[in-house]
Amino acid sequence: MIRFIYNLFWPIGLLFFLPGYFTKMIRRGGYREKFGQRVGLYDRELRDCLSKQRSTWLHAVSVGEVNIALKLANALRTLESDLRCVLTTTTTTGFALARRNAPPWMEIVYTPLDYWPIMRRAFSVIRPARILLIEAEVWPNLAGEAHRRQIPLVLVNARLSPRSEQRYRRFRFFVAPIFRLLDLVCVPEEEDIERWTALGVPPDRIHVTGSIKFDPDVQPENQAVATSLQDALPALSSDSLVIFGGSTHRGEEKMLAGIFLRLRQQFPALRLFIAPRHVERLAEIRADLGVFPLRVALASESQGRGADADCILLDTTGELQRWYGIATVVFAGKSLTAHGGQNPVEPIFAGKPVVFGPHMENFAMLAKRLVSNNGAIQVSDTDSLEGAVAELLRDGDARKRLVQNARAVLSEHQGATARAAALIHELNPSL
To answer: Which is it for the CA torsion 338, 348, 187, 106, positive or negative?
Structure first.
């Protein structure tokens, strides 16, 4: 009955959300490529390839989830040497990252829209032997079709933000029947068991594995674009310091620019690097920074006229982890002028101290543990951010202590990927 109502109103909902959906796709670019896959239309080459063997279907929304999916797939491959995978992703940035990093035994496809005729066509082409959903993507028709075909359905690295939990609890009558279709749920923390149980997941299907996103065992080595500032920007001296804004959102770039200009009076060799969460905002960001007395360049220009720039803007997607190597202090974006926060783990594994604002809802438990164990600094406003950054720029020992404490917190998640892979393998050992 729930799925009937959902499918009945799905076309109406699509019409309502379609303008915003297309606007976002056009803004991010690359939406025309393989657009048919979003409505369950696949070319002959892909159909022929997938017809040879049933696959493990991994579904990931965007860049962060794609990285988790790739880690998990590699861990499963060590248990199942003949593993074949299909990785579906929603965004063009996630698609580009997946295609760039996927192994030969994995096909990259756009996520089909969750409407029953579209989803049925997708199932008939992908022919999944099992489905692994990354973090929070439990769609009614996808889940229902998997259940109807007796295909194991797994939610990995199950993430439940306070906002999502509140919304799910409010509409528990509708979501609980969908969540009950999950055969296995891998959660990061013990506290998550009760939360998912309250939403309808049988408790015997929930297992604490730790977070794949925070697993030290599968973090890529920090292959920085430059191992030193001289390699990246030859005009800079060896004593240069770098404030790095990671995955920033609207308003945070101007905030960092103001802090940078004030702190440069104390630290003449200081430089500012900014990696916006959405690179399509680059024109907007350059306009915002134009009101400051700054020389701004793109990272792609850093070997040329950008070598003596005060501020470098990263203009590529999926390379943030590699750039953290040149940072002295990292600010985690979407935490001061926006809500939700960005992943603080990547800079920590790059050996960099992290500062973030009060809004870390997407990483609430991790942020709380980092702060309580002196593994990160949480600030309340621009003034306190400036003070925290200044102190860290002055004190190299304080930076080292912060990183050491942060890594100790993350060690709780060591082995999370292997544990999740083992549970998935046991769920369907015939694969």
So the answer is: positive
